[in-house]
Amino acid sequence: MATMDRKAAKRVAVVGAGTSGLAACKHLLARGFRPVVFDAGATVGGQWTRTLASTRVQSPHAAYRFSDFPWPEGTDWHPRHDQVVAYLDAYARRFGVHECVRLRSTVVAAEYVAGAGEDEAAPDADAEQWAGNGEAFGGDGAGAWRLTVRHGESGDTQTHEFDFMVLCVGRFSGVPNIPAFPAAGGPDVFRGRVLHSMDFSDMDDADAAALVRGKRVAIVGSSKSAFDITAECAEANGVEHPCTMVCRNPRWLLHDTDVWGRLNLGYLYMNRFAELMVRKPGAGMASSLLATLLTPLAWLISKVTGAYYKKAIPMREHGMEPEYGFAGCISSCKIGMLPEAFYDRVKDGSIVIRRSMSFSFCEEGLLLDDGADRRVVPADVVILATGFRGDQKLRDMFVSPRLKDIVAGSPDTTVPLYRECVHPRIPQMAVIGYSESLTNIHSCEMMAKWVARFLDGAFRLPGVRRMEESVAEWGRYMRRSSGGSFRTSCLGAVNIWYNDQLCSDMGCDPRRKKGLLAEWFQPYGAVDYADIQ
Questions:
Q1: Which residue from 89, 125, 195, 511 lies 20 to 30 Å from 461 (Cα-Cα)?
Q2: What single-letter DSSP state applies at residue 204?
Q3: What is the DSSP track for 134-177?
Q4: 159 DSSP β-pair partners
Q5: What pTM did the predictor assign?
């Protein structure tokens, strides 16, 4: 009882009530803590509450789930966004998370208040141990986090202090990535309307439909959201007002996750045998040598799988063949599901695809510039599906210039998080859900379990230098496997190996399957880790 009282006395803040925030709160509650969850929205669910009407989960519901909370009977194979919101709400109610959530509460600033003997401007700047002793709450005289929170529509602010802060703010919201334009080629010269996909997704469904109906719409981008918005516009306007998608580098968007109609991609890329073919960070020389020896097999699997999708999907016919191999889309997380009948709409003329390496605005719409070839795309509405600046979103959380400078790393490095959760130089703080994976909800839940056990004292962190060495090694892997998109910190090709590290820290057996064949050749998923609480 005394132990539980001590845990409850520790003040823990969770910022964000999306998938990662809900999982963090659930597992902290299970460990005896009483966290406070702040979220700017009116309901739990994060970005799932502010998305396109047609948005669905890209993974089958059997893969996109919490380990100990199945979907209800009758759920679509690829759940609609409203089904996801209902699922997350039911999860929060089942595990008592709702009682901890303060909705319409936006954290506008986070300030570290130094403890005795700490430098307030540079906590942990020269420390050998994280937070002084490698423990979540630090030693005697540890500091605290002071959060400034804006509540409700009134805009009134309050300050709250916490012993530990868990950031679950995600990467795909908050700060849109707006391309730079020449002086005379920015949105201000365009006589129509320009908005980012974030603003379009935030609109009420009826208002979004009214915005595009009967208008010439151009969407810029090659991400999943660009395809979804293009499909919605084409459905609203048909061939009378074709929707134009301007794309620079096409991605692998699939019609099905079964290759040749019978072999699921999980058996090719999401089991232990598949990860033998990957040079995993921190796995040692023997593992690296084995991966090198298996390179021809990895190349063959990628080539054959890519050839199947190129034949099954008319991407080559419409100039949308990706410039990198299929294995690259797994290791960089540049993969998604095509909107239904997308290329049928391209064929009937309701969608027009234009490839261009650069673009700017003109009075009539978009000016595509590929050297000698300059084309105008007439438009009334332009939607920029150009992603988000997740690093800036992290920086904007902090008051301290030093923390702003170090929290997200530099343009040449990944975001420096040990185990993708803890910054080696920022004490009493964890980040959950910033890294990408092929099934983000599963990765977020594993991180939440790791963070909850860390706060519960199940293990200590290694020294700061050792953590920084690990961060650097994982960063080199990300750069090697993801190329120019390395800052997304994709775990797609090493998800099992990553979970192995978390399990080892938590004192759990990383081998989760029954039987040798199952352990090496069956796909891994959330359910395999259900007994880790």
A1: 511
A2: -
A3: SSTT-STT--EEEEEEEETTTTEEEEEEESEEEE---SSSSSB-
A4: 148
A5: 0.94
Q: Is 402 buried (19+), middle (13-18) or exposed (0-12) by CB count in 10 A?
A: middle
Crossing angle of the two packed helices 19-30 and 81-94, in degrees rounded to 10: 10
Cβ within 8 Å of residue 44, ≥6 positions away: 17, 18, 22, 88, 89, 92, 97, 98, 101, 103
Residue 80 backbone dihedrals phi, psi, to 5 degrees: -70, 160
End-to-end CA, the chain: 20
Instruction: Give the strand pairing for 217-220 and 12-15.
Output: unpaired
Q: Tell me whether residue 255 is exposed, middle or buried, using C-beta atoms within 10 angstroms of its C-beta: 0 to 12, 13 to 18, 19 or more.
A: middle
Q: Which residue(s) pair with 56 in the sheet?
A: 80
Q: How far apart are CA 333 and CA 500, in angstroms?
A: 20
Whether the Cβ atoms of residue 247 and residue 410 lie closer than 8 Å to each other: no
Q: Which pLDDT tens digits describe the chain residue by residue (533 residues)?
A: 556 666 778 999 999 999 999 999 999 999 999 999 999 999 999 989 888 888 889 889 999 999 999 999 999 999 999 999 999 999 999 999 999 999 999 999 999 998 765 555 556 666 789 988 999 999 877 899 999 999 887 789 999 999 999 999 988 777 889 999 988 899 999 999 999 999 999 998 899 999 999 999 999 999 999 999 999 999 999 999 999 999 999 999 999 999 987 899 999 999 999 999 999 999 999 999 999 999 999 999 999 999 999 999 999 999 999 999 999 999 999 999 999 999 999 999 999 999 998 999 999 999 998 766 789 999 999 999 999 888 888 999 999 999 999 998 888 888 999 999 999 999 999 999 999 899 899 999 999 999 999 999 999 999 999 999 999 999 999 999 888 777 788 999 999 999 999 999 999 999 999 999 999 999 999 999 999 98
- Kindly state the tokens that stand for 183: 């002086």
Query: Cα separations (Å) of 328 from 299, 301, 302, 463?
Result: 11, 12, 8, 33
Tokens of 526: 């959330």
CA distance 192 to 186: 12
Q: Are 136 and 428 in contact (CB under 8 A)?
A: yes
Torsion angle of the four alpha carbons 491, 492, 498, 502, in this order, in degrees rounded to the nearest 10: 80
Question: Among candidates 438, 428, 523, which has minimal Cα distance to 488?
Answer: 438
Distance between CA atoms of 488 and 468, rounded to whole angstroms?
A: 18
